[in-house]
Amino acid sequence: MAFLLGECLLLELLEQVDMSQAEFAKRLKCSRQYVGQLITKKDNATMSLEFAINAADVLGCSVNELYTLRETSSRKGH
């Protein structure tokens, strides 16, 4: 079984910890625009593993909580 990234849950997580997108961007040393792109998946934007680890640390959650995951029936190339 393999997984694909589904919906980005960043906006919901920010609301849970009462943090603005601007504050989150400042703490992650990225632009507010990039945070918006992640939330909307504009241009298929997704977090790098390094960014996700740091985002999870700032938000007090696990990396797996940043996105919904969709199961696929098989892994490509395996």
Automatic annotation (TrEMBL):
SMART domains linked: HTH_XRE
Q: What range(s) does the HTH cro/C1-type domain occupy? A: 10-66
CDD domains found in the cross-reference section: HTH_XRE (cd00093)
One annotated GO molecular function is: DNA binding
InterPro entries per the record? Answer: Cro/C1-type_HTH, Lambda_DNA-bd_dom_sf
Query: What is the protein named?
Result: HTH cro/C1-type domain-containing protein
